[in-house]
Design a protein that fits this description.
With 384 residues, the protein is of the alpha+beta class. The chain has two domains: 127 residues, no CATH class; 187 residues, no CATH class. Helix content is 44%, strand content 17%. Strands 1, 2, 3, 4, 5, 6 and 7 form a seven-stranded antiparallel sheet that branches. A hairpin with an 8-residue loop joins strand 3 and strand 4. The longest helix is centred in the N-terminal third of the chain and has 38 residues.
């Protein structure tokens, strides 16, 4: 596939920055969005560096002393008292030196990833390319598995463009459940479609892990899996609602599917309502100019094919349409546009989640009641 030819001005991502302008910008953001002060972040970085340096110095001295003791025992020798005193005299100085070096390295690392400069750069980058930048959005309302999962959801570093169609790119963060403290952060791309489409998910094989398996945020009923033509199944697993298999094959024609394989093989893809949502395990809102160029080229490549999707219509919404699964059901896009209405019938709006199987649990409880129940009753009645 030929890469979409676009111009991306990425000079703001790694060019020189006016430090005072960045601080003024950060103060304005703090008032508008309630962000933490960058000075507090710097103090935290220094404190973490000092503590890390102390830990490294302590561990280093302990290992050094242990090694010296083993050497002395092995060669059956001992240092002169003055020699031991000289070594001990250097300990405090070496400790201070290690702490200072680690703290300086920590601060330098913080400066490279300074949130003040980082947000300022992203804002300039967005403006230079005709987009807008928002540092944080609390509880962003969007359809789809990623935005409807977990608690305390927040979206960070969102850049948006409204024309010729709404597109947004950012990082989404949430707690998987109220009982887990860990945060899940995923990058996403959201593209607004011209019409609502059936709920279709492409589970990317490339971002699945051996330990966790699929990176999807919910379990899809495997009965809704649809095999695609060619070798596309090696890259994506497609799920569509029952009765919408032909619609899915229309929407993901070979040329469109090839575009996803070439440009978005590491993204999970979800069509939900009138949104096309792509999500990945890693962050997308970085200061890497090549990463941004790749993302914007991906958006441009997908937009070239979305006009074809705008012609889709759901035949089930037509007057007198055959019910889902009927042999008389024809592919809706072939119908004249004046007979078709925009929208998706209820069966196609959401995929079925994998349901919990009660039969194994019921059988286990019955077995426990038959074999363990009498023993518990006897123990309660006769005390043993």
């Amino acid at each position: 596939m030929e890469r979409a030819t676009i111009h991306v001005d990425a000079s703001a991502l790694d060019g020189p920055v006016d430090r005072q302008a960045a601080i003024d910008y950060e103060e304005a953001l703090s008032e508008s969005f309630g962000l933490e002060s960058a000075r507090r972040d710097l103090a935290d970085a220094v404190l973490r560096g000092v503590l890390l340096g102390i830990a490294i110095a302590g561990a280093g001295f302990g290992l050094f002393t242990l090694a010296v003791m083993h050497v002395l025992v092995f060669v059956q020798r001992s240092l002169e008292p003055t020699g031991v005193g000289a070594v001990q005299a250097w300990y405090p100085l070496l400790g201070v030196l290690i702490v200072v070096v680690v703290a300086v390295l920590r601060v330098r690392h913080w400066r490279r990833h300074d949130p003040t400069t980082r947000r300022y750069r992203l804002d300039r980058f967005a403006r230079d390319n005709g987009w807008t930048y928002t540092p944080v959005i609390r509880s962003l309302v969007r359809p789809g598995m990623m935005f409807e999962t977990g608690t305390t959801r927040s979206t960070f570093d969102v850049i948006r463009r409204e024309h010729p169609r709404h597109v947004e790119i950012g990082d989404h963060e949430y707690h998987p459940s109220p009982f887990r403290k860990e945060l899940v952060r995923r990058g996403y791309i959201g593209i607004r479609l011209d019409v609502a489409l059936p709920h279709i998910v492409l589970d990317a094989v490339a971002n699945d892990s051996r330990g966790e398996g699929s990176s999807l945020r919910f379990r899809v009923d495997p009965a809704q899996r649809l095999s695609l033509e060619g070798d596309f199944d090696r890259f994506f697993t497609l799920y569509c609602p029952s009765g919408y298999e032909r619609d899915a094959l229309y929407l993901f024609a070979p040329d469109i599917m090839q575009r996803f394989v070439d440009a978005a093989a590491d993204f999970d893809v979800e069509i939900v309502d009138d949104w096309l949502m792509l999500s990945s395990r890693g962050k997308v809102a970085t200061l890497d100019r090549e990463r941004w160029r790749s993302l914007l080229e991906l958006v441009a490549a997908l937009e070239e094919k979305l006009v074809q999707w705008a012609r889709w219509r759901d035949e089930q919404l037509l007057d007198g349409a055959a019910p889902t699964g009927s042999s008389k059901r024809r592919i809706a896009p072939l119908l004249s546009s004046d007979r078709a209405r925009s929208g998706v019938a209820a069966p196609g709006r959401r995929l079925r989640h994998r349901r919990f199987r009660w039969a194994p649990l019921t059988a286990f409880l019955i077995v426990m009641a038959v074999f363990v129940g009498p023993y518990l009753v006897a123990s309660a009645l006769f005390g043993g």
